[in-house]
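# step 3/5: fold
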Amino acid sequence: MKRDELAAGIREAAYLEGDFVLSSGRRSSYYLDKYRFAARPELLQALGEQLAALVAEHEPDAVRLAAPELGAVALAAATSLVSGLPFVIVRKEAKEYATANRLEGAFEPGERVCLIEDVVTSGGAAVAAIEALREAGLECRTAVCVFDREEGGADGLARRATRLVALFRAGEPAMAPKTPAKPHG
């Protein structure tokens, strides 16, 4: 699937207008529902291909992918299938039973990983995942996302020595809000 076809498919499947509170706590007049695009096999396959190409281009030394739970896990799995790179899942908190892991999946300290994200607004979830990866001894200097809302996430990651590479950005004509987003406080 070509990039413009993928953008149109994501927009058709997942772009919603209304009054939304984002995970960052901000309000928005539009929402890109990651579950609506990640749950469609033709879009997920194309996203895996596109994200794997971005990882190969921008973090060629990565030996593993990482994904914050829950939204980015399907994307990391699709990217893993295309790239051949294994991945770990970063829990929001360590589980309180069995292994008590915060990171699920095998890894070795010192490995370079590339974080896979879905939609980035302020970058808070990505930053938390990167901190958990680094606490486990992994090196993460690049995050690849499907959609950057261009609301400070890249800057938040840069302050933690991590660059954000986005497949799509809010400012692109194919992905821009139908009506301009207005900050709600």
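# step 4/5: annotate
The mean pLDDT is 91.
# step 5/5: archive (pending)
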